[in-house]
Every structure is written in structure tokens, then in C-alpha cells.
Amino acid sequence: ESRSFAVFITVSINDSVDEIEEIVQISVPEAVVPPLFVQEEYRFNISESLENGYIIGLLDITGDTSSGFEYFIDPNSTVSDTDPTKTETVFGFTTNTPNLFVSNAAHLDRETLDKYNFTVFIRSTTPPNIDSTQVIICLLDFNDQSPYLDNSGDSELISASYTSGTFVLQAIGVDLDEPGTVNSEIRYEIVNTVPFAIDAINGSSTVNDDLTPENVTIEVEVYDLGTPSNRGNGSFLIRVAPRNDFDPVFQELPYTPTAPENSVPVDPVLSISVTDDDTGDEGSPILIGLEGTDSEFFYLNGSDLYLNASFDRETRDTYYFSVVARDDGEPEFYRTSTSNITFTVEDVNDNTPYFIADILMERYYVQEDAQRGDVVVTIQADDSDIGVNGEIQFSLSPESVDFELDSVSGNLTVNNTLRRSRQDEYTFNVTIADAAGLMSNDTLIITILIVEVNDHSPVFTEEFNNIISDIVIEENGPASEEISTIYVEDLDTGASGDVVLSLNDSSGRFSIINGTLFVIQPLDYENTSVHVISITAQDGGIPPLATSINITINVDDVNEFTPEFDADTYQGETIYTAVIGTRLFQASATDGDGDDNVITYGLSASDDILNFLEIDPNSGVVRTRDAVPEMANVTTYTFNITATDNGRPNNRTQYIEARVVVYSPENEFPPEFDQRTYMASVDEGLPIGTSVLEFTITDDDGRVTPAGQISNITLNGVEADFFSISSIRETPNGYVATLLTNAVFDFEENSVYDSLHVYANDGGSGAALFSEPSTIIIQINNVNDNPPIFNRNSSNGSVSELAENGTTVTTVTASDADGSLLTYSIMRPTDVPFAIDASGRIYVSGNLDFESLNTYQLLVEVSDGVNSSTTNVTISVTDGNDLYPVFQGDLTFNLSEEAGPEFVGTLNVTDGDQPPNNAVLFSLLNGTSIFSLGQSGDVYTIESIDREDTPVYYVEVAAINHQATPRLNTTVTVTIVIDDINDNPPRFVNTTQYLELRIYENETVFSFSNSPVRAVDDDIGSNSEVRYSLSDELGIFDIRPDNGIIYLVNSNRLTYENLTELVVTVTATDNGDDPMSASINITIKVIGVNDHEPVFTANEFSFQVPETLESGMEVGRITAIDPDRSPHNHTFGFGLCDQANCSLCSHGYNDSVTVSNNTFQIDEFSGIITLLEGSFNFEDPIVLQMFSFCAVLFLENRPYNITDQAEVTVSVTDTNDHSPQFVLSDDLFVMEDVSVGEIIGRWSAEDRDGSPVHSDLTYRLSIIGRYLDIYSNGSIYVARSIDRENPAFTCPPDSSGNSTLSFLVTASDSSSSIRKQGTLTVKDVDDKPPAFLRNVYEISVVENIPISQSIIRLAADDDDCDIQLRYRIVAGIPNFDDFELLELNGILSAAVTIDRETHPFYQLTVTASDSADAADTATVNITVLDENDNTPVFSPVSQTLSVREYASVG
Question: Measuring CA to CA, which residue among 155, 159, 149 is closest to residue 1087?
Fold first, then answer.
């Protein structure tokens, strides 16, 4: 309720001291409510046929309406975004009323705009206010639009074979009245008599009578169902083409032509015949081409197939392609057929057989016990050819009864019992040829060696291993010192048991002699303290077996070197007044033995020396230990110094003589030069101060006193001024001074200086003593200081330009006063073709050319190595025939074609040589049937020439120096260009590209730019320039004269209804002076368009995918087709939706769907469905194994126009994605005598795959000897008798008698497998008897051999493991008790003293038995060797002899 009222408020004001208050009254008058719209929005529906002034409706308001107000439409509002008409001009309000009326009925047109939306305002003045509301006016349809045919004028090409009810075309009627109302509902009817009917509701036209080839116009009327009904009409052109009911038929399906390799036949390899049961063009089949990647090797010429290349059958023997034929009817109704062609390349015997071997020489070993039929080797050979050309036949030479070669299989087999003793080696030549007789050039050489069975390696005995475990040999031992006998055993017999020892010794100090290791060169500890050698024992088996052992030999050091002093003698000097401890000299010695030797020094002297001298035992320094005895004269004390090492087993001592000279302090002795005469030489020309020789001066007073020191050296003599003396220096051997030059000497002036004497005096107190003079003779050495001089100031020479290198031109000579060796050289010019040798001979060293340079000025130098001189040499070069004739000028000539015998041109030749070398003779080398050449060089034609046959001739012409020696000639190519005349009209090429052209109807701007008409003219230049013109009676097409492109000039008549094809004539004219032309007819066919929508090829698509399918991988592909026969089909796309009912997909689709966490995606263009995201697991029971969704087909340019739907089902299949895993895999144990077939264990595996095809397992067991096998359930059984003694088993290292053998079990599913290794342990059973290594032992012993000394070790073998054999003597003659056989090791020794004189021979029978009492017997034959153990005995002891006197001697 609105009323007036008052409000009272108190207002206070204060400062820091006082405050005042005041009451204020506020009066509020009664409120006035302005006019307001009742609704925020008003909606009205009106007919589009209303007239001006029609009241649309009332806009209610509330509030105070007593004061003034007004309605108005938003002045800025327009009727639509595309229509700028102001809304206020279409609608309005009656004055001061809320009535909205139509003010411009002409604007109301529902088909143009079906709704108006604008704002209306109400404005009041008291109180001032503006309110607004929204007005929406919808126009209702009125049947004011006449229907019409949207595609009137379309044409369609159909076949006369169409039957009644066949769809022809779709009439598309359009009524712009409101859709879904009777005003826009259309009906169709045909108003003329034609063999067609039309569906009144959907407008589809069909055939309803027999058809004949003709053009038929269908007149169609279209009307709506509104009141009143409106009508429209239109027409369509139907072109009825002749019937085309039959496909072309090939006479062969497929074709299988052949041709031999390596050739291109001239004749066709295949003639293709095609028929067609239709008539007219439709019954005229033509071959239109070849298809397939292999078709590039072939080409068609009419109906004949030709090869486009030669083939190599061995590279490829079969080619697959197809030939396509079609009839010649209307393009839209073409019928095509395809026949496959399989072309086979026939083999030609162009390849020889060859062996499959890297080296054509093979060696094979065959055991002596090989059986007949055993394959030695299968010889591998091949032949790239096939059939009889590739069938290989093997031949063996020489023929052999022992071996046979299968001529077909190549198996070389044993054909007889082999005896190595009869023949131990065979060599055969194997040759091969194919069945057609082509033989290989190669021969395979096969060598077969017959070998014994060698199954034991040599073994070094335990005894020998013990011997070599610690070998120590003293160095410097005697050569051929024995180290040890080498004990080796090999259980094989024959050559396989014969052992050969070899030594690997890098030092070369050891050797094996008769089975014993020796030192053959003394060992040296100081060089090598440890030697490591290797011994290899190799038997004679084939292949041989070998064992090696390393031996370490330690060298023991021996004290073999005596200490050596570093000087021949030692000497010290002193005076008797020297202080105690004066150092005189130091002795030093070294020892060649090991680094640990220590040398001790000592003195060996008389007591009087030992009283004042001592030596440091460690350093060897000799010092005075007491006062030196005083003597009147110089006294020399001589004694020995000792150096003693600490070597083992005995030390060694070295002695050296030493002297100590004791001088008196008085000057008793004069200086002495080391020579009475000095002789030396010095080179001439050396500078002053050059050293010439040295003097050494000594003084017996000893250098320890001034009396023994040299103080001055003096030169005397008439030549003394030429020399000087250097300063004096002290050396261990005396005082030394140097003689120096004091002048520069010249050998040529004076060669010797011999008037010199030299003196020396000491520095003793009182009167100094002078030495005796020594003579000096100095020889001056000659030095090369004079230049050589040529004997002549200049020289001349002459040589032919044809002279060979080395030819002498002239010789220069020179002399030298010094007598030095002279050398010659050419100084300049440096690049001349001449050289000079050590004798001054100038010879040719390069190429001479008279024409380039015929005179040379040489500056020749002679040198003695230091000095030189020069001379001038002039060489003249004479002419020789070295220049080839040279053709001058242009060698290209032009000649008009069609000309008869005619002059072509003249050849000009020059020769730079001098007469007669430059005379030239011409010769024509080719083209003699067309051209002639005179000796003046004139060239003529013999006959007329056609440029189109040969546009250019290349004629070889030779110019010869026929009067010169040697005769030289030059050959050139003369080019004769034939000029063109216009004698050839243009000719059309590549006509298949444009003899028939196609264009779609209704084109407005078009050209056949991809198929230009192409003509060539065999002439050249302007005669070959072609321009085109076109004759078209209808004036629709023309042609570009320069490039032959036909283009559209009048599109008005280019409709399929009026014109299906037309023939135009194209003329090509050349640009010659007398133009020539050619014409060709071209057919241009007009193609219509089609308008059917695409559909899927099936209502349902089902795909199976493996469970291992990964994201991004393909599921399958759905396909669709467009029923239109026109090439202009709609372009469509694919989509997916997840509706249960695919018909509901019209509400929406996407490019992917998600079903049970798996997302599938489809490619819009290809229809390929892929798994976008997700995974499958066939083994998981809770995971979905089948997925269903929908696919939709839509027009690409109208994506919301869905044309078809289809159901898609994806089923998951099991894959083998789990490998088997063993769950039971124990090792196995059996006794050696286990029964065959007995199950000894079970292995088991499992597979997690879901389907039996992938989870069913198979087992396989692999073991050497195939002793075991495995059943399908994993049970392992004994497949063959187990023999632990078989080489596959080895004796174990333990004493349990167990041997092991590894086996491998494989568990496999359909595509994967797992392997695991197990161990089979076999317990040994004593089932093998022992066997002696020999049946008979032949040995010799020396009588009186010590009792119990080993004679021989009898050895037997037992294949059982760890069997202890026992040996016994069981019989013997004459007395087997004379010998003893150790039971456990088989060592035979004498039990009594053996006496040859008593028993010279024994025969013993011995046995070896194992734990099972199985035994073997051997015979031992012992021959007793004699020993000289009996003295001679006279028999009788005495006797009496008589002789006659005078008996003769003898």
C-alpha cells in the first residue's frame, strides 16, 4: 500500500569542549508508479497474407496511466541481420493504445523471413520512466508458392536393355511453402506419352515399356496439395543407348605364353582373340591395355603381345599380369573383361654346373672299419638352369673298386672292405655336367685317407708329473745333462698308440733325445733364472690326438765370475813429508755374478808398506796410515790390492798391482817430452790459431813439488815465427800444451815446415832444469783453392730433332791445377732437352722440335766442388719428320638434300715439317659409296642424299706423309650436314591420347590441356614447325594453333541431352615455303552426371582380432559403394555411433566409440577401423570378448546427411601369448643295467593360454646317444640300453661309481617353447672284463739285475670305473718263482739273482682280474742278456806238447 509518512532524526555536532544537537524532520510523500509492461515477452502468430492495419495484439501495462505516455519500437531494430529494413516501418501502435498492428503487409513473406524479434518501449513523463519488453511475431504459411522442378532439363543415358521397373532418374520438386504442410507437399505426373512412369509421391522415374535406341523427352508436371493448388512443370531428356548385354570373351583363360631367355623375339609371343555377342559398336571388343606391375615388360600392338625386354630365367622365370578388353559402346555402359596372363621364361642351357664349395680340393678321413654303403661325403653341386639343363651328373676318375660315386645324388660311398695296409690314401677327380651335355670347367679333387680308430689321447704319467714338480739345475752345467726321462702312456694300439714328443722352448737350451729331456746348452743364472718349456705328446692316429704339459726349470746360481778391477794398475804419488791420512787413489771392482754379491778390498804387501799404507775394505780408498819413510831419492813402492766376493760355494779373489811413488822435495830430474820427433799436418788456408798437435811433458821429480811441475815451453828455429804454443794444462798423464798456427799457409808456396825445435823447463827452486829439445815437422795439406779451366771458350754441336734420349751431341773438357775431380752441369737455360754427364758429354734428354726451336745456347759449368768456370755451347737441331699433317679450317660442310653428284667442299692440310717431309696424300676411310675425295682435297657426292634417312654424315679422312720417314698420318672426322627441304608433311603421333576425348556436360570453360593433339614433321627448321587448325560444324570447339590444345568456345550447346559426341577434324600444317599438311578426325564424347547416394556393401560387418591387438592397430575395414554408374559419384565418409539400434544413429555419430573401456576409431576416408585405446585378454573370464557398435555413412559435403547404417561386431580370438613354464623338472638317477622302456621320471610344464590350440603342449628330449626319450605326458623312459662305459659317459671324480650326462627337455605349444637342462646320473655296474694292453710282452734283462728292481710295468685296462685290478703270475718256464709281480700295480721284478748261464730265457703267464673276478691273460717272454761275470778257464788245466826240431813257422 502506498501512503505518505515522516521520519525524525537527531543530528549532533561537537568539538573538543562543547556539543550541540538538532532534530530534523524528513517528509516522504505518497509514491507514483509509472506505466510498466505486464510481461517481459509477448508472442504472436499471424498469417503472411495479412493486410495493412491488421491488429496483431495488445501489449498490457500496469501503473499510473493518468499522465502522458507513449509506445514505440526500437528505432535501431532491423527485421534481420541480412535485411536492413527498420522494424518500425513494418509494425506500429495505434496512438496512445497498446494495440500492435501491421503497417507494411508487403514485407510479410514467410519464405523470406518467418519470424520477427524486436524490442518495444513505453515512455512516461510523470514520473519520467522508460520500460521495455520483447516482441516475437511468427508468420504462418499461406500457399503462395508454386512448386517447380529443381533439376528440370537434366538428361540421363540409359541402355535399351533396361527392363520395366528399372530406375531412370529422380525428379526433384521444390515448394518453398512451409515444410510438412499441404502447401509444400508435392505430387508428380508425366503429361506426355513415353515408355516411362513416375512415382507420384517421390518423383522417381522408371521404365514401364520396351525401349529402343532413341532420345526421349519426358514432360513432368508437379503440383502441391494446398488450397488453391499451385502447379509447375519441367522436362528431362532420356538418351536410350543400344543394348550392351554381353561382356567381351577371351578365347583363353588364362593365357600362358612362353619365350626363351636372353632374346627378344621379333614375332609376337601371343595373339589375343576376343569376341562379343553384342551387335554394332557394343559387339566390337578392343584391347585397351595391360595391367599389373609386370606389364611394363610387355606391350600390345593391336591384338598381338610383344616382349619389351629380354629376360634371364635364372633371375626370374615367371611374370604375372593381365590384359583388359572392352567393347566400343557408350562409355557409361562399357563392358570389360580381364584375362590373366602368366608368362614363362623358357630355359636356355646358358649356365654350366658348379660345385658348392669354396675350395675345389677336399680331404676326408675314413675309418678302416667303415662298412660298405657308408657315405663318405655328398658332393654338393648346382646348376642355375632347370629341367635337363639343370640335372647334374657326377663322374669319378680314376675308377675304384673301393669307392663308388652315385652319378645322380653325388653320394661318394664305401664300396669294398678297406685295408689301410693295402692302400692308405685315395685321390679322385670329380667332374660334373648337366644332362644336356654342358660340362663344368671345374674339377673337384677329393683325397680320402684311411685311418685307424684313435680314441685315446696320450697321458703323462703320475711318476713324470712328480719328477717335474721341482726341477733345479745349476748354471754352467755340462751340455747334454739329463733332466728326466719322459713317461707317456697311450692306450691305443698301432700307429694310434705311437707317441711322438715335441718341445716348445724359446731359449733353445733344452732338447728331447730318445724320450729324455736334456740340457743342450749351459744355463746362465745371470741371464735367465727360470725357464718354462712345454712338451707335447701326440699320437699317430688320424686324426691325431695330443696332450701338452708345461715344465718350470729353476736355475741355481754358481759363483763363476771373479771380481774385475776397472783399471790395469793403480798409482799414487806423495812426498815423504805428507800428513797421515793423505788420500792416494781409489780402487774399484765389479762382479758378474748376481746382484747380491759384495766385494771386499784388501792389501797384499810387505810389512814395511803395510806400516804406512791402508785400504778401506768397503770403498777401496788407499790412504797413508803413518809417516812416509824418508828416502834420498824417488822411491816406488809396489804391492797388490785384492777384491774378494762373497759367492757360493766358494768366494773368488782378484789381484791387481799398485804403486805409490814417493818423491823427494829436491829438483833432481829435467822435464821430458813424450816424443823426440813430432810430425803433423794442417790444411792450407786455415786461420791463425788453428790447432796442429799436442805435446805431453813429464818430470820425474813428481808433480807434488815445484821441481816436478812444467813452467814454460819454448819454440826455436828459423820457422818458429809461423807457430805458437798454447797455455800449459795438467792431465793425469803429465803436462799438455798445444802447437798453434801463427800464419795462413799456402800449399803451393811451401808444403812442409821442418826447422822447428821445442824445449820445456820445470819450476824447481834454484836453477830450473831444461828438457832435451824435440824436433817438429809440419806438413801443409793441399786444399782446393784453384778453379777449373775449360780447354775451349765455346763449343758447337748438331743433332736431329728425331734423336732418341741419350744421343751424344758434343763433348766439353776442362782441367784443374789442384787435380780435383771435376763435375759438369748445364747452368742455363734450365729447361732444355739436354743433359751432361761426368765426362762433359752433352746428350739428348728430352723431346726436340725443329719447328718450335732449332738452336740452343747453353751455358755449361765445370766445378771441382768448390770453384767453377763456365763456357758457351751452341747446339743446332736439324729437321726430321715429326709433325703430323694438320687439317685447317672448318671440317663441317652443308649440303642440300635430294642433290645429285655435287661438290661438297675442299679440305686444307698443312704440315710444319720441311720438304719432302711435308708432302701430303689424302685417303677416304669410309663413306666411299656416297662420297669421293680428290688429292687436291675436293669432296664430291656420288649420289643423291635424303636428309630424313641420314641428316648428318661423319666421314673419316686421313692425310699421310707418304714421302717421309717415318710416315705420319692424321685422321679427322669430316661432318657433312644435309640441309632440309620441305618434302615431308606433318604426321600425328601418340594418337591414342586424343583420338577419343571426353568432356562433362554443362562445362563452361574447359580445355583438353592434358591431351593435346601432337603432330611432328620429319623435316627440320621452319619446315618442321607445325600449326594446328580445327573444323567443327557446330562451332563448339576450337584448337590453339601453337600447342594443339582443343578448348571449349561455345558451352551453350554442350549438353548431354543435345549432344553425346561429335567428330572434329584437326589439320596440322608445317611452315615451309611450300606448306604441307595432314588431317585427323577426333571424337569428343559428352559425359553426363549421376546423383545416387552411397550405401554399405553389407548390413553387418564382423571382424575377428587377436587378443594381442595393440592400440593403433587395424581391426578391419568396412566398405561402401555408390550405385551410380556415373564416374561423378558422391564422395562419402565413415563414422561410428554406440546406439543399440543403428537407425538411431541419425541423431549423431563420431569418429570413435567406446565399448567396455575399449575405444574404436574409424578413418573417415578409408573405412579402416582401429583400436584407438584399450586392450584384450582372452584368458580373463570377466573381460568382454565381443563388441558391437554401429557404423554410419554420410556425404562428405553434407556431414549430417546420413545415407546408410550398418552393424559392426568385433570378436576377440585367442593368441599364443604365453610361453610354457616347467613345474616339474627333477634330475634323474638310474643303474647302468636299467631296462629299456622303464620310466625313470616325469617332467611337466603348463601353458596359460585360453584355447587348446595354444595351450596343448608337446615334449621333446635331447641326449647324446639317445638313451632317453619322453612321452607326450612328460614321462621320461629309457629308450636304449645304457652303457656307462660308452665314451659319452666319463669316469666321475668321486668314488661312488656314478657318471653323469646332461639332457635337454623342450616343452612346446603351437609357436613357442621353453628348454631346460637336466642331469642323468648313472651308477656303474662292473660288467666289463679287464684287458691287457698287449697280448705278448717281449722284454730283455741283463743277468745279475738287482733283486726287486723294476723290469717292466704290465698294464691292463678295464672300461668300468674306479676298478682296482690285481696282477698275478700263474705259470711260467723254466721257473716262474724267479720273478715277482706286484699285485696292485703290475710291476715285474727279479725275485732271485738271474744267471744267463743257468736260464737264458723265461716265459711267464700273467693275469689281470677285476672285482667281479673277470680276468685277462698275457704272455711275458724274457730274454736274459749276458754280462761278463765269468773268468776264462783252461781245459784241461795243464798238458804237455811236443814239437819237432826244425818245424816250419806257422
Answer: 155
Instruction: Give the pLDDT band of residue 190 (cuts 50, 70, 90).
Output: very high
611: left (phi over 0), alpha (psi -120 to 50) or beta: alpha
Q: How many C-beta atoms lie closer than 10 Å to residue 414's C-beta?
A: 19
Q: How many angstroms from the chain centroid is the CA of residue 649?
A: 70
Determine which of 127-136, 1007-1016, 1021-1030 has the lowest per-residue pLDDT on average: 1007-1016
The helix/strand/coil state of 110 is coil
Confidence of residue 8 (pLDDT cuts 50, 70, 90): low
Q: Which residues, 6+ apart, have CB-to-CB distance to 51 below 8 Å? A: 102, 105
DSSP state of 1022: G
User: Mean pLDDT across the chain, nearest whole number?
Assistant: 85
Identify the three-state secondary structure at position 195: coil
**DSSP 3-state of 1121:** strand
As to burial, measured by CB atoms within 10 angstroms (0-12 exposed, 13-18 middle, 19+ buried), residue 291 is: middle
In what side-by-side order are the strands of the sheet with 969-979? Answer: 892-896, 969-979, 952-960, 921-924
Closest-CA residue to 741 (of 750, 730, 732, 733) = 750
In degrees rounded to 5, what are phi and psi of residue 465?
A: -60, -35
Q: What is the rounded CA–CA span in Å between residue 1092 and residue 1204?
A: 12
Question: Can you tell me the distance from the alpha carbon of 277 to that of 283, in angstroms, rounded to the nearest whole number?
Answer: 6
* CB atoms near residue 1205 (< 10 Å): 22
DSSP assignment of 925-958 equals -S-TTTEEE-TTSEEEESS---TTT-SEEEEEEE
Alpha helices in 169-283 (DSSP H): none
The band of 1276, judged by pLDDT with boundaries at 50, 70 and 90, is very high
Q: Are 674 and 695 in contact (CB under 8 A)?
A: yes
DSSP-H helix ranges across 1148-1271: 1252-1255
pTM: 0.31
Helix (H, G, I), strand (E, B) or coil at 1333: coil
Give the pLDDT score at 665: 63
Handedness of CA 699, 703, 709, 710 (dihedral sign): positive
**What is the DSSP annotation of 1350-1374?**
EEEE--EE-SSTT---EEEEEEEET
- Nearest Cα neighbor of 1179 from 1105, 1106, 1249 is 1249
State the DSSP code for 754: E
Question: Which of 182-196, 408-422, 743-757, 1174-1188 shows the lowest per-residue confidence on average (mean pLDDT)?
Answer: 1174-1188
Q: How far is CA 488 from CA 499, 501, 538, 549, 1397, in A?
A: 8, 9, 10, 11, 35
Confidence band of 667 (pLDDT split at 50, 70, 90): low
The confidence score (pLDDT) of residue 1129 equals 54
Residue-level length of the chain: 1450
Long-range contacts formed by 82-87: CB under 8 A, 24+ apart: 83/112, 83/113, 87/116, 87/118
Query: What CA–CA distance (Å, rounded) separates 1222 from 1318?
Result: 12
DSSP state of 769: P
Q: What is the pLDDT of residue 1299?
A: 80
Tell me the C-alpha distance between 1406 and 70, whole Å.
154
The beta-carbon contacts of 922-926 under 8 Å, at least 24 apart in sequence, are 922/957, 922/958, 922/959, 922/960, 923/957, 923/958, 923/959, 923/960, 924/955, 924/956, 924/957, 925/955, 925/956, 925/957, 925/958, 925/971, 926/955, 926/956
CA angle (191, 197, 202) in 5-degree steps: 95
pLDDT of 1091 over the 50 cut: no
pLDDT at 767 over 60: no
Indicate the SS3 state at residue 809. Answer: strand
Tell whether the model's pLDDT for residue 1127 goes beyond 50.
Answer: no
CA angle 918, 920, 922 (to 5 degrees): 165
